[in-house]
């Protein structure tokens, strides 16, 4: 088991990529703390994870909630080996001037400021224990942006870049930081990303831009997270790790 006895926090873990990451980490022997604003969903996925995994409510835009999440995980398991900042949100695909300020603020609060909150809470813990791993779920949108998603693209560009900067600054503390960059995927946000109904014809327009010929799936992102969280990736830090079927080539 590649993650045996490691304690891993996964945000946005009630569904989609987060649920896939949590389940994959649990299969590899980790104790997973599944955090989501949808507490019932997080608890349901935690039950599927088995072992000592637990689902908790957390609004990642709230510093108090994130502080309570980290403190609770540390109290329950004694240490925090890995954090996966997966929680994310988007505005609907539309002209950039049509996105209102409240929506802009929400996208950046969930996608970017949440990582600020988590970093402030978890880095002192990892420093005290001698190291750790932080995985931020960025996006190919921050590498090769699609039109209609400008402000979402900007938020994920921030995630990708801040991951590199964190890796440089936290390397001496033996804290590895990487950004996982999925292409558009089979999640609940798919229609918002497309800006049109999820029909086979509309999916085909997006799939045509991906050389391997399909959308990303939770297992694709989960497998990347397991590798980057494991000791197999002990000398990998500061990378944008595309999970994109060749989209960003």
Tell me what you see in this structure.
The structure is a single chain. The chain has 249 residues and is of the alpha/beta class. The chain has one domain: Rossmann fold. It is built from 8 helices and 7 strands. It has a 7-stranded parallel β-sheet, sandwiched between helices. β2 (31-36), α2 (39-49) and β3 form a beta-alpha-beta unit.
Regarding CATH, which class? Alpha Beta
Helix content: 40-55%
Could you state the order of secondary-structure elements as H and E? EHEHEHEHEHEHHHE
How many domain regions?
Answer: 1
Largest sheet: 7 strands, parallel
Q: What's this, in brief?
A:
Helix content is 45%, strand content 15%. With 249 residues, the protein is of the alpha/beta class. Strands 3-2-1-4-5-6-7 form a 7-stranded parallel sheet, with helices on both faces.
Relevant terms:
Rossmann fold; 249 residues; 7-stranded parallel beta sheet; alpha/beta; 8 helices
Q: How do the helices and strands line up, and which of them pair or pack?
A:
Elements: E1 7-11, H1 16-27, E2 31-36, H2 39-49, E3 54-57, H3 63-77, E4 82-85, H4 101-129, E5 132-137, H5 150-170, E6 175-182, H6 190-194, H7 200-207, H8 218-229, E7 240-243
Parallel strand pairs: 1-2, 1-4, 2-3, 4-5, 5-6, 6-7
Helix pairs in contact: 1-2, 1-8, 3-4, 4-5
């Amino acid at each position: 088991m590649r993650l045996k006895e490691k304690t891993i926090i996964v945000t946005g873990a009630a569904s989609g990529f987060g649920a896939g990451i949590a389940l994959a980490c649990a299969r590899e022997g980790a104790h997973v703390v599944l955090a989501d604003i949808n507490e019932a969903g997080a608890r349901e996925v935690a039950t599927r994870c088995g072992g000592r995994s637990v689902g908790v409510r957390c609004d990642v835009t709230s510093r108090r909630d994130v502080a309570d999440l980290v403190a609770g995980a540390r109290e329950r398991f004694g240490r925090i080996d890995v954090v996966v900042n997966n929680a994310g949100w988007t505005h609907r695909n539309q002209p950039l001037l049509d996105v209102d300020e409240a929506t802009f603020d929400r996208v950046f609060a969930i996608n970017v400021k949440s990582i600020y909150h988590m970093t402030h809470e978890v880095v002192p813990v990892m420093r005290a224990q001698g190291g750790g791993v932080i995985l931020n779920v960025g996006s190919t949108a921050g590498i090769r942006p699609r039109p209609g998603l400008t402000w979402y693209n900007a938020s994920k560009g921030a995630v990708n870049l801040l991951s590199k900067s964190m890796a440089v600054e936290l390397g001496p503390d033996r804290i590895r930081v990487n950004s996982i960059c999925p292409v558009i995927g089979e999640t609940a946000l798919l229609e918002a990303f497309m800006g049109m109904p999820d029909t086979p014809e509309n999916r085909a327009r997006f799939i045509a831009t991906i050389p391997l010929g399909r959308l990303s799936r939770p297992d694709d992102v989960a497998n990347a997270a397991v590798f980057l969280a494991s000791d197999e990736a002990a000398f990998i830090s500061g990378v944008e790790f595309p999970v994109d079927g060749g989209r960003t080539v």
